[in-house]
Amino acid sequence: MLDANTADNIARALWTETFELSTLEPRTAEFVNSAKNSNASFGERMRGYLQDLKKRSISFVPSYARRYEFFIEHCAELSAHQAYVMSNLLGSDTVEGYELLGETAGLQFPRDHRVFLKYQVGWHFFVGTAKGANGKTYSAELMFWQWALLPPPVAARFGLSDIENQVMEMHLAVTEEGGRHYRAAPLLIAGTTSLIDVRDDPFRWAIGKNSIEAQQRGDLFPLHLQAKGWDRGTGDHAELAIDLRFSKGKGILLQGGSGCSPCCAGIGTLYYSIPGLVLEPGSWLETDGNRVELQSGIFWMDHQWGTGFLPSGAPMSAPLRAASVLATPSPGGWDWFPLQFDDNYEITVAAMHAQANSQFYFQTGAEPPGVMTVPVAGKLMNPQAETSDLKGTLSVTEWVKATHSNDAAYPPTGSWYPNRWEFTFDEPAPSHLRNVVMTPLVAGGQMGYFANGAEYLEGGTKLSAPDGRQIGTGFAEATNYANTQAFQAKLAGLPADEATMKLLQRPVPSALDKLAALLYTIWPPNAKELKRVLDCCSKNGLSS
């Protein structure tokens, strides 16, 4: 018997809000009703993995045994959704068994457009702005997110294939400039349902009826995107859908250090972008029953994947792990932006969250935070598709409060998010793009939720010169401005009480831990190895 949450997700993946087992294809019905897809099996597999983790001991990594013992007590049965959220709450000792990153990216195309199932996490992400036949401007977002619940060797021990070991999310949003921001409720599907399809050449990634699909072998383009969802933030459950076709992109933009963002002692991510996706005739979007044919538009694609990114994993280098004990921990989170200008320049930059700006995170008071000024770093692509490193400064001068959600099951946090961004870019940005103002397409914020319980902001923007002239379009992403840990515990089936919150806190190293780490790092052979590793990490995108 399927739980209500799993049945609801399956129905929406098949483009209906009502689950009817009798309407499923026979093969799908067989998988959906199989033992592998049962809550008992998800619980059994998670318990087995937690028992493995309890026994694990990694130098300079704290023990999470008490946390894992607590989790074991609460996973007699788990839905796919609960198993996914619980896996997001594991400690930094979870890297072993997943594919690790090398010291260089070595990306090759079209090979690396594919979905990498043996890494811990990965996603394909499309955002952009288009002009409708009705004269209105719209932005759209589609992301397919892949998460391997268990390290592949552990999954194989339980008889799971790489695809059966996955849970995959879809994020879909459409915004009408000056109007409403529509965002579909989070969609999560397990590979054990048979509703996930991944192919390499021609590229295809499908989650139910939603798909990202290349139209020929040997190339990503032409590319076709189809997706449908429901915004459940209102009583009418507004339906939204996209059907987008792209003939080509401007070129490959390697993020970080030649595609490493970063590659550091086995952990990190590989990351590239394709700006300037050309929207083809026949593309359309639909909101609340109103279909709009799109006449023109420009979009951006990101593909990123890796291991040790979420949850933050322990590096393979013992000296680096020791140095991490001595370092000030990062609060986690980032602000990220793709900017596409009317004169065929593109800029992508990010600002990683830092303890120095902690007064701007997790703010829920009546008044917004003040001006936040932070460094940004990223890439510039010129009209000839040549790329170069770029740095600058971002000032957040306005804020918006999270007061609504796209699904009643995911309550708004009331946290403050950035709502106006003023950039100052250094050379090699051309002089007319040194100062850029970014503002959202709609008032009231463009917040949403991951199915894992993390609230974030993501939405279309317009770019202006200091004199107010519009000079392009972009997107803004802001994560980890809201503390949703108690909500995540609830989603995972854990008690959201004080004792649970204490178990979920990041372990604080003791004075003895720090002394041991210090002595280890200053021993000459270890100091030499630490310098080598840090130099390699820096070269491979650590600062980005």
- Mean pLDDT, all residues: 96
Secondary structure category: alpha+beta
Gyration radius, to the nearest Å?
Answer: 23 Å
Individual helix count: 11
Label the overall shape: globular
What fraction of the residues are assigned to beta strands by DSSP? 35-45%
Low-confidence stretches: none
Give the N-to-C terminal Cα separation: 47 Å
Q: Main beta sheet: strand number and arrangement?
A: 15 strands, antiparallel
- Count of β-strands: 24
Helix fraction? 10-25%
Layout of strands and helices, then pairs:
Elements: H1 4-13, H2 26-32, H3 39-55, H4 65-73, H5 80-87, E1 121-132, E2 137-148, H6 152-157, E3 166-176, E4 181-183, E5 187-190, E6 196-199, E7 204-207, E8 210-214, E9 223-231, E10 238-246, E11 253-254, E12 260-264, E13 267-278, E14 284-287, E15 290-307, H7 318-326, E16 334-341, E17 346-352, E18 372-381, E19 387-401, E20 416-425, E21 435-440, E22 447-449, E23 455-464, E24 470-479, H8 485-491, H9 498-503, H10 511-522, H11 524-539
Antiparallel strand pairs: 1-2, 1-15, 2-3, 3-4, 3-5, 6-7, 7-8, 8-9, 9-10, 10-14, 11-13, 12-13, 13-15, 14-15, 16-17, 16-24, 17-18, 18-19, 19-20, 20-21, 21-23, 22-23, 23-24
Textual characterization of the structure:
By secondary structure, this protein is an alpha+beta fold. It has eleven helices and 24 strands. It has a 15-stranded antiparallel sheet that branches. Strands 16-17-18-19-20-21-23-24 form an eight-stranded antiparallel beta barrel. β23 and β24 form a beta hairpin. α3 packs antiparallel against α4.
